[in-house]
Amino acid sequence: MQQTEQMNANERRFGRVNWLGLYTLGQREILRFANVWTQTLLAPLVTAGLFLVIFTIAIGERRGDVMGVDFTLFLAPGILMMTVIQNAFANTSSSIVISKVQGNIVDTLMPPLSAAELVLGYLAGGIARGLVVAVAIALALWLFLGIVPQHPLVALFFVFIGGALMSGVGMVAGIYADKFDQMAAITNFIVTPLAFLSGTFYSVQALPPLLNDITHMNPIFYLIDGVRWGMLGVSDSSPWLGAAVTVAATLAINLLAWSFFRRGYRLKA
User: Fold this and answer.
1) How far apart are CA 80 and CA 57, in angstroms?
2) 15 φ/ψ angles, rounded to the nearest 5 degrees
3) Which residues contact 137 (CB under 8 A, 6 or more apart)?
4) First and final CA of the chain: distance in angstroms?
5) Alpha-carbon distance values, 82 to 106, 145, 210 (Å)
């Protein structure tokens, strides 16, 4: 009874939202990747550049135009979004798994933070990392390929919602996984194939009807397609449909993460 009264007192003292705790958690998650920027920011930029160079050298001239644009230009938005997806996912999933393995997840669960505040705090780190990576790659594309986004706000929206979606997926995966090899399996067998097989390197119009229909059930396809429309003005589907699908998927996955935190699923003994 005394413990319950103390918890209620804490809730009253912090109000409906623990802004200080939420800010601190978000700041911690951002500083996590900022302190190792060569690994979390520079490395993705180099990897994206290598993808673009290798595909351009290997098949660029023989491939011809795709959807009316040069193949290299067609690749660029897909590679940008794929990098955002991977980094947003890695930020939240690695943070939670490392805390669980090291046994200090209690330091995150014990403060007077609600499940919603925990979700928002982790989201802040994942979205911030995705946005920073996206801006860095977009600047490189402007400098080396002369790509200027035709619809910059649309591109920014899909980068933001992509970071939120994959940060939520990362939270769910991080809570579920108890070991690094489980996390690696989720990354290698779920996240990476979904990113690679979502129109990153090709237009889905080239797929057989069945595969085309399956691809359109993948929310990541709409992220990549939306960013491509925002940067180049071409897409395989309506950006409005893509916005609706990705927002719905983002709300659903983050609601699942919220329920896991609220119940302490695979987090508390």
Assistant:
1) 18
2) 80, -165
3) 44, 45, 48, 79, 80, 83
4) 21
5) 32, 18, 23
Exposure of 182 by Cβ count < 10 A (0-12 exposed, 13-18 middle, 19+ buried)? middle
Task: Report the 10 Å Cβ neighbour count for 249.
Answer: 20
3-state helix, strand, coil in the chain (%, to 5): 80, 0, 20
Per-residue pLDDT of the chain (269 residues; tens, 9 = 90+): 444 444 444 444 667 889 999 999 999 999 999 999 998 889 999 999 898 888 877 775 666 788 888 888 999 999 999 999 999 999 999 999 999 999 899 999 998 999 999 999 999 999 999 999 999 999 999 998 899 999 999 999 999 999 999 999 999 999 999 999 999 999 999 998 988 888 888 888 888 888 888 899 999 999 999 999 999 999 999 999 999 999 999 999 999 999 999 999 999 76
- Phi, psi of 217, deg, nearest 5: -95, 0
Residue 126 near residue 166, CB atoms below 8 Å: yes
